[in-house]
């Protein structure tokens, strides 16, 4: 059985897509980011939670502050990417649940009154949304360079607040020269899937 999605789209989103390490200087517009979000907001999460928060780093001053918190090897690409996004989990996401999950508006008070429970749910569901976001960047014909090599606490203090947990930094733009490392191996189907 073949996939319904066109093979060219499969390649764009998965087979040919890679984490970019260099970028051209072509800007990434607010309209492109809006289109990406308007697509990926439909990705499923538990109880339709939407804990992902996206902080776009555009100004030179903010970029400089962010680069200072990046691991040494990630600094040059973060300094030169046309757009950088800080993806974080909003640990107070439950306040939106009566609107986002109208089938059971009481869910907010049934499951999410305790902060540790919210943090676990926010981390898992925001990570799902972050993956959708990366695929959305690819769907826009752009390259994403997601990274976790940074000072999480430093980024939280510099750009967020105590209610937000940083997940990853994503460089976004058109791939530049020598943007790709060689493709790394993947596990095969029978190494991952077990039928019981």
Keywords, separated by commas or semicolons:
196 residues, 4-stranded antiparallel β-sheet, alpha+beta, 41% helix
Explain the overall architecture:
This protein is α+β, with helices and mostly antiparallel strands. The chain contains 9 helices and 4 strands. The chain has helices at residues 7-15, 30-40, 60-67, 75-80, 97-100, 107-111, 115-139, 152-159, 189-192; strands at 52-57, 83-90, 143-147, 164-173. A 4-stranded antiparallel sheet has the order 1-2-4-3.
Residue fraction in strands: 5-15%
How would you write the strand order of the largest sheet?
Answer: 1-2-4-3
**Rg for CA atoms:** 18 Å
Could you give the order of the helices and strands? Answer: HHEHHEHHHEHEH
Ranges where pLDDT stays below 50 over 5 or more residues in a row are none
The secondary-structure class comes to alpha+beta
User: What is the end-to-end distance?
Assistant: 22 Å
C-alpha geometry: globular
The number of E-state strands comes to 4
Instruction: Give average pLDDT, whole number.
Output: 96
Count of discrete alpha- or pi-helical segments spanning 4 or more residues: 9
Main beta sheet, described? 4 strands, antiparallel
Helix content: 40-55%
Short description:
With 196 residues, the protein is of the alpha+beta class. The chain is built from 9 helices and 4 strands, in the order ααβααβαααβαβα.
List strands and helices in order, with pairings.
Blueprint: H1 7-15, H2 30-40, E1 52-57, H3 60-67, H4 75-80, E2 83-90, H5 97-100, H6 107-111, H7 115-139, E3 143-147, H8 152-159, E4 164-173, H9 189-192
Antiparallel strand pairs: 1-2, 2-4, 3-4
Helix pairs in contact: 1-7, 2-7
């Amino acid at each position: 059985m073949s996939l319904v999605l066109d093979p060219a789209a499969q390649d764009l989103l998965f087979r040919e897509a890679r984490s970019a390490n260099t970028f051209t200087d072509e800007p990434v517009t607010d309209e492109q980011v809006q289109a990406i979000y308007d697509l990926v907001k439909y990705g499923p999460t538990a109880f339709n939670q939407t804990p992902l928060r996206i902080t776009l780093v555009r100004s030179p001053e903010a970029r400089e502050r962010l680069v200072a918190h990046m691991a040494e090897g990630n600094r040059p690409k973060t300094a030169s990417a046309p757009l950088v996004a800080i993806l974080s989990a909003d640990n107070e996401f439950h306040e939106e649940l009566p609107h986002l999950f109208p089938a059971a508006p009481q869910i907010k008070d049934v499951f999410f009154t305790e902060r540790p429970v919210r943090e676990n749910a926010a981390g898992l569901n925001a990570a799902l949304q972050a993956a959708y976001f990366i695929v959305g960047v690819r769907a826009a014909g752009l390259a994403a360079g997601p990274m976790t090599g940074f000072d999480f606490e430093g980024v939280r203090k510099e750009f967020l607040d105590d209610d937000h947990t940083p997940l990853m930094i994503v460089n976004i733009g058109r791939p530049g020269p020598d943007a790709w490392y060689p493709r790394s191996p993947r596990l095969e189907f029978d190494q991952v899937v077990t039928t019981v």
